[in-house]
Structures are given as C-alpha cells and as structure tokens.
C-alpha cells in the first residue's frame, strides 16, 4: 500500500472513531465588520509608513516619475562603482532607472543573466513591489520571470518601488482586492516582506540585517500616468 | 536528537545544577512574554480571535482527509509534487531519494581532487527535527547546513534546539562566543552583532552552493494548494530562491482550509511566538518556477507526514492538540520549562505541548514521566493562541499512564490506603492525629536541613494546635 493510502486510511479511521468533536456553540464573538475601503488613501499611506518605520524600514512618499528619479539618484550615488541589482522589470524601465544608473556610473547587473557569485557581491537591489499592507508595513513581492527573488534579497540594501494606489489597509482587504486589481494570488509564488531581515537568536538581542537586507527603503509613488 | 525522556529526573537535576542555563532561559522567556503581551494588548478582540481560531482548526480536523485531498489536488495542478508518508523513516527515505536525484551528475570533486559533499541548505523546521532528517541525510553523504542562525549555533555545537521557535535560547552570548572559538576557529568575541556577522559570512557561501533547499511548512492552504513559511532572518527566502530543488515538509495538521483561515492564524502566530505583528517574511510557495524564471525552485516537493498524529486525531480527549501552530508560547509561560529549559524534556518538542505530544508520538511507556513534569497551573492553556486545553490533557495522560504502566507496589498500596482512609471520616480524623503529633512534637524539635529530601529545601511547618475538625466541633458542636 502506498504511503498515501496508509495515511488517508489512518485519518479516515481516526475520524470514524471520533467523528465530530465540534462544540454545539459556534458563536465565538469574532466578527469582522466590513471596513470602509480606504485603499490608496493618505490615511492608509501614513499608517503604512508608520508601521514600516516601527520595524526598522524607511519610506519616502513621492509624487510623479520625476520625484522618483530624483530620490533614486540620491540613493544610488552612494553606491557609485559598486554593484546594484536591477531586474528586467518593465516598470523600472518605464521609470527610466537603467538610464539613471548609467548616468551615475554604478555597475548595473541583472541577476537573471549574471552569475550568482557576482550578484551576491551587490551593494544594493532595486525592485518594484506589487502591493503594500498598511496594518503591518508589509510589501508584497510577486515573483515572475521579470521579477525574480534575488534582487530584493542578496544585497544589504533593498529599494522597493510601490504604487500608492496599491497600498491596502490590511491582509484581508489585500486578498479580497488583489484579484480585482489584477494580482492573481495563487498563480505565482510571492513573498511578503516586512522591514529588514532580523534575528534575536543570541540572548534575544535584536539584530537587524541577518541573511537578507539590512535596510529596506520603500519609495511610495503616484505615477504621472494616473 | 537522541531521545532521553526515560531519564527525565536526571535531566532535570542536571538542569537545576546549571545556573548559567537557568539564567539564560529565564531571561529569554521573560523577554518573549513581555513582547507578546504588548502586541496582544493592542487587539481588543484577542479572546474572540483565539476562540474563532480554535473553532476553525477543529472544523478542519473533522474533515482532515478531504482538506488534505483538496490541498493535494490544487498543489499538484500547479506542478508541486506531493508525497504522503506514514512515518519518519518513510519521510527520510523519500527525501533522501529526491536529494540523490537532485545532485546526480553534478561535480563531486574539488580542484584539488578532494571529494566535495553535495550541499543541502535547511531553514528551521521542527518537523524535520522530529524525524531526524539531518543525521539521515548526512549518513547518505550530504553536507546538511542549518541556516537559521540559532539552529546553526546549536548544530555546530552538536546540540539540539531547546525551544520550538528560539533554538539557542539556552545559550548566553559567552556560550556562543566559546562555541565559535572551538568550532569555527575564530577569535573570542561576545557581541551578538559580531557573532551574527561571522555566522552570516559563513552561511552566505553555503547558500550560494546549495543544491537542495529543505524548509518546514507553517501552513498549507488547501483552497489554493499553497505551502508557506514564516521567518525573520531571510534564510527561508534564500533556501527557497537559490537551490533549484526545494522540499517542504509538513505534518498532516498543518493544512488550513482557506486563505481566510490563514489570515486569522497569521495574526495569532507571530504575536504569540515572537511578539511581532507579522514576521519579517511570509513566503508562499505557490508553484515551482517556470523555465523562464532564473531563481526559485524548478522542482517543488511537499512531504505530508503522519508519524503518530492520527493517534491524537482518534482520541477525543487529545484531538485538539493538533490545532497547535507551534508558536512556543506555552513553553515561555510554563514554570517547569522556565526553570529547566528545553533539553531536560529529552526529545524534540519540550514544554507543555511536548509533554502532551510525547506520549502520543513515542508511546506511553517511553514518555511516562513527561506529563508529570507540570504543575498543572494552566498557564499554558491560558496563553495558547488556539486554546488547547494543555493542562487538562496532561491530567488525562497521567490517568492513562497510571492505568497502562506498572506502578511501584508501595505507591499502589499507599494510594489504596489513602482512598480507604478518605472514605471513612472517623478513621481519617483518628489517623490525622498521628502525623500532627509527629510533625509537631518530634519533627519540629529535631528539624534539620540535613533531613533527606524533605528537609533540604523546606523550613519546618508551623502547625496549629487544633485541627479544623476539632475547631469546628468546639464552635458548632457535633455535626449531625
Ligand atoms: S500548544 Fe498552543 S501555545 Fe503551545 S506551541 Fe502549540 S499553539 Fe503555541
């Protein structure tokens, strides 16, 4: 008998022996009243920034592509002559970031087409984030061929670009709205990232910057395209 | 880890003689409890959330077969390879086979002609500890690296994790400093940041050359076919980004029916475990990477393990233990755990949850002392985010153990005598005078801290001259 049938049979037997241990009373007092939808509003944006800052992340709120370019230039200049990871993401292309990087003379690398050991040397990685969750200061990275995992992961500094209208109040609203907003939850792998990587494994002392980024900077922007 | 549940008393004695251990455990558990209390306080409906989570976990358990089949169907449809295994042995065999296939044909010698063992990177997983996966894979010739920093520390020290969510909780920074000197040959230091930096540097190289990634699975969502993990260090992200083959290992109870259930549990787990609103990352393994993706696993395996869980499922008094989301809060709250640390329990899962699981997983005989390592104070049940009635389960297991395992004759006779005496008030009162006399007249005047056992840790009791029954009689007369 295969492992599958052995396990299933054991479960079914156990359930027959003790078919229903549920309490009669199923009202737990837990009810989630529908919240007003505040997705993308300034209130939600403030909450997102506040929560992300609390866990050691940084945010900048920007209006228009030009502002994004400006602040990115400031951030990238610090990494002149160093390696910066930039995936082949069309949105980054649209924002003119590859061009900007050439101007500033950083060593731009696409992790998709470079060696892993070289990518691991990077000082910074820039990616888009597909959504934000305000309640926890979380960014949602949805992985695809254009948006790999490594640009957000290997370098000590991760800069994520997040559209203002994609910040949802909480996890539940995110899941409910994601589909409508064109994000297919179950179709692709995804990572929810909240602030820099951290550990407290030695005497519970909080150390930010464990195996992943030490700094997470989220640039929240509204696009010129509306 | 080697199971030493049968020497529980000796384990506890050695923990009690270790002041450094006790100080480290107390400090860490206090810290965790305080952080938890802060983030729990900000949710006014915390209690309702606990009840709801308990109910939803129970609902899933009552149709566990269908829920797992749904998970299998949806995961398989996306290309995830699902394996069902009845026990640890089978799990190890299948995982070993996947690893062998993953590395076959790849280089096994270095430029100097030395044999290079193929490397497997693991992120933290108690389920793989439970089945002894690491030693098994090592016996097949793999190098297996624990990448969670706490796990890495206990791995190089040759120890086992002492806590479900904080494996190196029993070690002080000085301990870690010394372990690094001895095992890694680095200079002694004790600054946590510096120590973490050393480990990170070593582990980064391991990540880059790992051929297989092994993760646990905090939950698996049936309706979407999605296993997922929560973690903080970024090691889970690396383990699931770099190796082209990934294996996630889950117990059958880790399945949740819907995303909505998951969201509720994601509120409870990080708050209870580490006092966080959410962990640094939540990684959803929705499908293997396509050929166009340059990272992530091309091959994604999900191993679904029973290993004794169906025994708990079949027992009406114990089924609810399968609600457990392995947050570790009951360990932090338990006065026994807080005094002895985790290793004393003698197997993978310590604390109240471990004392319930041990008799189920290992058998009553092997684990017969563990349910007695509890004060039955109930703090574990009070703190449990899914409302598992741990202390009543421990009481129930004590009864089972007494019924099933041979008890010392003397103890049996003692309890039977006690029962007879308690059944007869007159006898009871008459006999009660004897210990009162002994305690009062003999013991008190000859009290010595050198008295074996009793005298060592206690001061002499100060008894009233009259018993309660005598006082009652004096005040109210004979009870009719
Ligand atoms: S029994 Fe409850 S408190 Fe203990 S680890 Fe499991 S979920 Fe957490």
Describe it:
The complex is a heterodimer of chains A (226) and B (480). By secondary structure, chain A is of the alpha/beta class. Chain A is built from 7 helices and 12 strands. In chain A, a hairpin with a 7-residue loop joins β10 (198-199) and β11. Chain A is globular and about 70 Å long. Chain B has 480 residues and is an alpha/beta fold. Chain B has 3 domains: 1-42 and 332-406, no CATH class; 43-107 and 114-307, Rossmann fold (3-Layer(aba) Sandwich); 410-476, no CATH class. Chain B has helices spanning 8-16, 19-41, 46-62, 64-77, 88-103, 126-130, 133-139, 149-156, 173-184, 192-209, 235-239, 259-274, 309-314, 329-333, 335-340, 351-362, 379-383, 390-404, 409-423, 425-443, 454-457, 468-476, and strands spanning 81-85, 119-122, 143-146, 212-215, 219-221, 226-231, 245-251, 255-256, 281-284, 299-305. In chain B, strands 1-10-7-4-2-3 form a 6-stranded parallel sheet, sandwiched between helices. In chain B, β5 and β6 (226-231) form a beta hairpin. Chain B is globular, with a radius of gyration of 26 Å. The model of chain B has no long low-confidence stretch (mean pLDDT 91). Chains A and B meet through α1, α7, β9 and β10 of A and α2, α3, α4, β1 and α8 of B. The structure holds iron/sulfur cluster. Iron/sulfur cluster is lined by residues 272, 324-330, 353, 383-386, 388, 390 of chain B. Iron/sulfur cluster binds at residues 272, 324-330, 353, 383-386, 388, 390 of chain B.
Could you write a compact summary of the structure shown?
The complex is a heterodimer of chains A (226) and B (480). In chain A, 30% of the residues lie in helices and 23% in strands.
């Amino acid at each position: 008998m295969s492992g599958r049938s052995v396990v299933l049979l054991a479960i079914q037997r156990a359930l027959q022996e003790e078919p229903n241990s549920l309490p009669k009373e199923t009202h737990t007092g837990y009810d989630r009243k529908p919240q007003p939808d505040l997705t993308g509003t300034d209130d939600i944006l403030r909450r997102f920034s506040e929560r992300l800052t609390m866990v050691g992340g940084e945010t900048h709120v920007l209006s228009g592509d030009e502002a994004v370019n400006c602040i990115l230039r400031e951030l990238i200049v610090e990494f002149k002559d160093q390696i910066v990871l930039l995936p082949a993401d069309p949105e980054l292309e649209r924002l003119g970031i590859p061009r900007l990087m050439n101007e500033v003379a950083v060593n731009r690398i696409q992790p998709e087409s470079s060696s892993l050991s070289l990518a691991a040397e990077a000082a910074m990685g820039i990616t888009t984030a597909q959504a934000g969750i305000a309640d926890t200061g979380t960014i949602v990275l949805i992985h695809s061929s254009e948006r790999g995992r490594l640009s957000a992961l290997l370098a000590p500094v991760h800069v994520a670009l997040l559209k203002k209208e994609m910040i949802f109040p909480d996890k539940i609203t995110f899941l409910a709205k994601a589909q409508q907003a064109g994000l297919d939850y179950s179709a692709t792998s995804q990572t929810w990232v909240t602030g820099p990587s951290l550990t407290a494994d030695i005497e519970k002392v909080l150390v930010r910057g464990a195996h992943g980024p030490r700094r997470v900077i989220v640039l929240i922007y509204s696009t010129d395209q509306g | 880890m080697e199971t030493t549940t049968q020497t529980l008393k000796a384990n506890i004695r050695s923990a009690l003689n270790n002041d450094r251990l006790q100080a480290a455990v107390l400090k860490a558990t206090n810290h965790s409890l305080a952080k938890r209390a802060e983030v729990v306080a900000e949710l006014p409906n915390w209690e309702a959330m606990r009840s709801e989570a308990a109910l939803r976990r129970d609902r899933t358990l009552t149709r566990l077969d269908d829920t797992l089949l749904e998970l299998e169907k949806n995961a398989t449809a996306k290309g995830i390879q699902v394996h069902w295994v009845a026990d640890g042995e089978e799990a190890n065999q299948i995982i070993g086979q996947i690893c062998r296939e993953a590395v076959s044909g790849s280089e096994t010698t270095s430029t100097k002609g030395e044999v290079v063992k193929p490397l497997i990177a693991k992120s933290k997983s108690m389920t793989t500890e439970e089945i002894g996966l690491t030693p098994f894979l090592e016996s097949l010739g793999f190098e297996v690296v624990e990448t969670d920093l706490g796990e890495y520390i206990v791995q190089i020290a040759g120890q086992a994790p002492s806590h479900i969510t904080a494996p190196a909780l029993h070690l002080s920074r000085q301990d870690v400093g010394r372990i690094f000197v001895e095992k890694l040959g680095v200079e002694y230091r004790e600054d946590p940041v510096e120590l973490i930096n050393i480990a990170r540097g070593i582990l980064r190289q391991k990540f880059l050359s790992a051929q297989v990634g092994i993760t646990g699975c905090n939950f698996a969502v049936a309706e979407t076919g999605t296993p997922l993990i929560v973690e903080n260090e970024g090691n889970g992200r690396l383990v699931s980004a770099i190796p082209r083959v990934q294996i996630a290992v889950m117990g059958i109870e880790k399945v949740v029916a819907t995303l909505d259930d998951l969201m509720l549990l994601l509120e409870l787990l990080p708050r209870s475990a580490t006092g966080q609103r959410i962990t640094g990352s939540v990684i959803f393994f929705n499908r293997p990477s396509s050929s166009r993706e340059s990272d992530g696993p091309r091959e994604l395996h999900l191993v679904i393990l029973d290993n004794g869980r169906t025994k708990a499922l079949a027992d009406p008094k114990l089924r609810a233990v399968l609600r457990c989301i392995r947050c570790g809060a009951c360990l932090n709250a338990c006065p026994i755990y807080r005094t002895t640390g985790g290793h004393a329990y003698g197997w993978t899962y310590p604390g109240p949850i471990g004392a319930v699981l041990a008799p189920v997983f290992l058998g009553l005989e092997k684990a017969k002392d563990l349910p007695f390592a509890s004060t039955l104070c109930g703090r574990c049940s009070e703190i449990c985010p899914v409302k598992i009635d741990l202390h009543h389960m421990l009481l129930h297991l004590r009864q089972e153990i007494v019924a099933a395992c041979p008890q010392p004759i003397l103890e049996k006779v003692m309890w039977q005598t006690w029962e007879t005496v308690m059944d007869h008030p007159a006898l009871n009162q008459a006999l009660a005078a004897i210990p009162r006399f002994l305690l009062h007249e003999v013991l008190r005047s000859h009290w010595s801290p050198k008295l074996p056992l009793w005298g060592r840790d206690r001061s002499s009791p100060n008894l009233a001259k009259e018993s309660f029954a005598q006082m009652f009689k004096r005040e109210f007369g004979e009870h009719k």
